[in-house]
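call fold(seq) -> C-alpha cells
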Amino acid sequence: MMIKLFVTDIDGTLLPIGGKVSAKNIEAVQKMIAAGVKVVIATGRMYRAALPIAAQLGVAVPIIAYNGALIKSSAGEVIHTHYMDAAVVVELIKFFEERGRHIQSYSGDELYVPEKNRYVELYESAQKVTAVEVGWDGLRERAEGVTKLLSISDNPNELIDSMNAIENKFPAQVEVTRSHPMFAEFMASGVSKAGAIKILADKFGVDNAEIFAIGDSENDLAMLTSVGCGVAMGNAVPAVKKVCTRITDTCDNDGFAKAVYDYVL
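ret:
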C-alpha cells in the first residue's frame, strides 16, 4: 500500500546528535512532500529544540514533541497536549533529590533544572537550548503543566535503577522510556510517539497500513511496532533492530534518505 504519512525521529535518525540535517535527507523530505506524503517529526526533544530542525527541512511539518506529550505544527498551532499529574511530578522530584540524582523538568516549553552541572551543560550543547536554574523548590513550584521529566546519568546502573523504581512506584501514572543511553524520560501514562501518531492519523484520515515510521532508540519502539511500516536505522540500539524486519543504513551514511527511496518513493 502507498505510504501517506511518514514519521521520523530526529537525533540519530534524521541527523547526528548535535549535527545538522544533511542535504540528501532534506532533498528526500522535500520530494516526499511534493509527492503528497505528509511528513511528521516525532522526538523526545522540546518543541523549541525541534523547531530549528523543521526549519532546516524547508517545509511545514507537524511536530510531535516530548515523546508525544505535545503535538504542534511548525507554524505554532497546538493540536494536542497531555500533561503529567502535578502531585506525581512533585513525588518524582522528591525521589531524585533524596538520592542526589539529576532531574530536569519541562513546562511551557521551558527547561528547568535545580542547578547547573555537567549534565545540564552537555544537554544544552546538544539540544541548542538554555536551561533555567530554579533550585529544587523551584522545580516543585512549577509542577503544573509539565510535559516531561528527564534524568541524565553516565552511570547506566543508576539510570536503570531510577527507571525501575519509578515504574514500580507509579505503574499506572508514569510512562518511562529512554531516548539515549544517558537519558531516562518520564511522561504521563499513555504518552508515546505511537499514541501521538494515532491522533494525527485520525486527523488526516490515514489508515495505519499507510503509515511509515523510522527511528533508532528505545523511545521509538512503540511507534515502529505500531505502524504499517517500521524501519530501524543502521545505528539503532539492539532492541529496536530486534523488532524491525527492515533496517536501513546508519545516520552518518544518510540511512534516512536511503529508507525514503527504498520504501516510500
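The chain has a mean pLDDT of 95.
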